[in-house]
Amino acid sequence: PPETLIGGRDYGLQNLTIFCFNYRRVISDSPDSERLRLDHVTVRAVPEAVRVRITKSNKETLAAVHLLGRNFQLTHCDLYAATAGNLPGRCLVTGPWGFCGEKGPWWGVVSDCVLDGHLYGMEAFRGLIFERNRIKGVAVGASTYWNNFAKELYFAENVVQHVYGGDREILTSDAGGGAYFGKATATGTRLTLAADPVFKDYAPTAHTDYRGAAVYILDGTGAGQWRTVTANQGREWEVDRPWDVPPDDTSLLSIVPFRGRSLIVNNTFTDGGAVQMYGTVADIIIAGNQGRRIDGFFTWGLNPHGWGWQPAWTTQMLDNEILEQSGYGGRVWGPTFLGVITSNSNEQYSGPLARGNILRRNVLHTGAYISLGGVSVDTLVESCTVRHHPVGIRLGKDVRGVLLRRNVFVDVAKPLDGDGVANAQVVATGP
Q: Which of 87, 250, 251, 430 is most buried, by the most CB atoms less than 10 A from its CB?
């Protein structure tokens, strides 16, 4: 098969059904595209039974639609892409398979579509509206596997269900990577690292142009601030604006890909793993969502693969509901929960990886609880309700600066549990 069955720079397809066998990409634009329109397009990409006929000239996975350019629109499309042997079939992919530089799949709309296949990956996007879609058997990944950012996502009123394969992540901001951990000096927007950066990611040779990534002050003076990288060369880096409180000799900084400034609202997630903000996240609002038979909703700071310390900051979980417990993810965290966690603390860094997170007015109807674990600071849990579970809120021993206010527990044997309860401030719990 050709690398792309239908491709070009600026074009449109409308009211078209495509059946194809032995495919690589069915529809694609190009990195310099400024206008792709797909409306009422149906794709059924199913490899032939004789798998030896499927050949590959590169490492790219299979895709029904692969978006590389800007200003795209997919509306009322129905996409299915089957897996062939060990080659996953992706119904829809945004982003390149390598570093995209200054151009990427930005400012697009995917609405009122049906997506069915192995995986949906949103890579290196900016300004993406993804709404009113039905997603079946597909993990949704807002990721930075090969790039520096995935941000400004509006993910709303979608239905995601039956995610059993892979890691069963029903929605994840996954991707490891990093460039630097250590000390630095700052003058205005200029940042001088105390040691050479070490670039790591999934690529065999990691990219070194880190524009669009984020610099976080994890601990010490100025902790809790982040800035966007605008240029880098050796130890000399530039960020988008000066620090409110500049770092000093006590400060520890991490430079890693950025995922954040996004809205995940009014979606329905059924039968799968976690809705998780995994690794670097900042300024995320997760609101008005419903989960049934999933692992839960949580934000998770960690150091994936030892490639970079990725913090989970300023996530707001508002008015979400967990209607039934028992997801398919099998995470080490135990039963279904909503909360904030961190992991990978070690002798290199044992400080907080979660800061300033808010959990408000969430309702856990049966078999789920609220969990704050790992090393985190400054978390508010307010006006949440936990029903029909042995534990209401569990606090780990390294959780600090927690305020629990006006939470309600119904048929909960132990409303507050864990070694960190003594460190929390508790105000007005309910029956």
A: 251
